[in-house]
Amino acid sequence: MRIAMIGGGYVGLVSAACFAEFGSQVSVVETHPGRLAALSRGEIPIYEPGLDKLVADNIEAGRLSFGSDLRAAVDGAEAIFIAVGTPPRNGDGHADLTYVFAAAEQAAAAMSGYAVIVTKSTVPVGTGRRIAELVARVRPELEFDVASNPEFLREGSAIADFMRPDRVVIGTDASRPGSAERAQEIMRRLYRPLYLLEAPILFTSLESAELIKYAANSFLAMKISFINEMADLCERVGGDVHEVARGIGMDGRIGSKFLHAGPGYGGSCFPKDTLALMRIAQEAGASSRLVEATVQVNDARKASMAARIMSACGGSVRDKTVAVFGLTFKPETDDMRDAPSIPIVHRLVENGAQVRAFDPAGMEAARPLLPERGLTYCSDALDAATGADAILVLTEWNEFRALSPERLRELMTGRVVIDLRNIYDPAAMQAAGLAYTSIGRPQHAARIASWQRSGTGD
To answer: In the chain, which residues fall in CATH 3.40.50.720?
Structure first.
């Protein structure tokens, strides 16, 4: 099959490389000069494990190409994917569809015959029908169909998610006689390799497919906010959030994933998708109280972390050196979008701390988002820890887990470790002479005893 992918960003590049691996002929259209130049040189502008090799292999095999000529890319393509950005619209949090509609209009003008125009970008309900209206207005004589094929890629494991997915969702327009069947047949052929793996492929209406992505991400974000509130409760009553998460996660109706307490969610999807779903519900006149509460809890979570850090440092970080382990919103990515490190590092610097930071992949992406003064980027975690009064763990990269507590204590000037990802064993840290603080785990016997004596959580 021949397909065109409009947009060579994270979703577009991963999807294009994986479709090419399936055997399709994929032309990626990228208009950003810097990104296109990098891709043409075989350089991957994002960090995603295994993506560089996958792209290189399929370029060499002649199945994957990059360019800026949209007409050449869509010529003869059976499916044209729109994989451009849908950032929050300024002022209201609704998804900005400027790039989506521009791509659809340009594709319509360039098409030479029938194709399925597929939204891979995360778009609000009703976008597919608006695209169909736009294309019909630009080219009244053109034969086409519109489909929605939302992505469910996790940064750091995107290739595995694409190749071995939990499900593939494809929304088509059943209101046009024969239209849905034709579009579904093309999408079935495109995803044929997954049939051999018995991956579930769900065909829905356009509206359902568009809503599924927002609903899935909002539900996962809700699980994160819930376990963070449970972590706070554990600290007040002497529970262990790890035990609570394991106990409830063993219930098949709940599941264990996304029950990891921490400083709040970030990244490219959860923050913008929860806000967008709230706006979709408001415009439809439907309630979205759980999603609204999820957003509020997460915002409050990030805001409270700096106060927690300063408390662990004796009430103030002024003139203290704080080593920060990890800047990206999660490990195995260089994505800094809405990372908890952004407000936390700014707050530390504003309160007089000298910050020494290290992240295995995200330091270049972090530079424009973090303070220019009061912050030093280090060569590795041990370099950051050298001379530090306190260590702050913000991202759970595996290389941080392997660090020896005794070695950290030797390098540090102080002895405070604030672990906001719970990657260390409290007993091992304390045995090394470190004043260790984590999330939702019993750490202060005096506080627990006081609560038990009083019979209240106050």
So the answer is: 2-199, 219-445
| Identity of the amino acid at 217 | N
At 169-220, the pLDDT tens digits run 999 997 766 678 999 999 999 999 998 888 999 999 999 999 999 999 999 9
What is the residue type of 105?
A: E
Class of domain 2-199: alpha beta
* 397-426: burial string, b at 16+ Cβ within 10 Å, e else: beebeebebeebbebbebbbbbbbbbbbeb
64-67, long-range: CB within 8 Å, 24+ apart, which pairs? 64/16, 64/17, 64/20, 64/26, 64/28, 65/26, 65/27, 65/28, 66/8, 66/27, 66/28, 66/30, 66/36, 66/39, 66/40, 67/27, 67/28, 67/29, 67/30, 67/36
3-class secondary structure, 99: helix
269 is catalytic: yes
CATH of domain 219-445: 3.40.50.720
Helix (H) or strand (E) holding 16: helix 10-22
| Structure tokens belonging to residue 158 | 């995107």
Contacts of 175 (CB under 8 A, 6+ apart): none
Write the single-letter amino acid at 140.
P
Q: Name the residue type at position 235.
A: E
Q: Are 117 and 104 in contact (CB under 8 A)?
A: yes
**C-alpha–C-alpha distance, residues 183 and 114, integer Å:** 10
With H, G, I as helix, E, B as strand and everything else as coil, classify residue 79: strand
Which residue in this structure is represented by tokens 């044929």?
192
Q: How many angstroms separate the CA atoms of 433 and 436, rounded? A: 9
pTM: 0.90
Return the amino acid letter for 448: I
How many other C-beta atoms are found inside a 10 Å radius of the C-beta of residue 43? 11
Most confident of 19-23, 35-39, 305-309: 19-23
Among residues 234, 269, 313, 378, the one annotated as catalytic is 269
Is the dihedral angle over the CA atoms 231, 237, 238, 239 positive or is it negative? negative
Q: Any residues with CB less than 8 A from the CB of 184 and at least 6 apart, and which?
A: 170, 172, 203
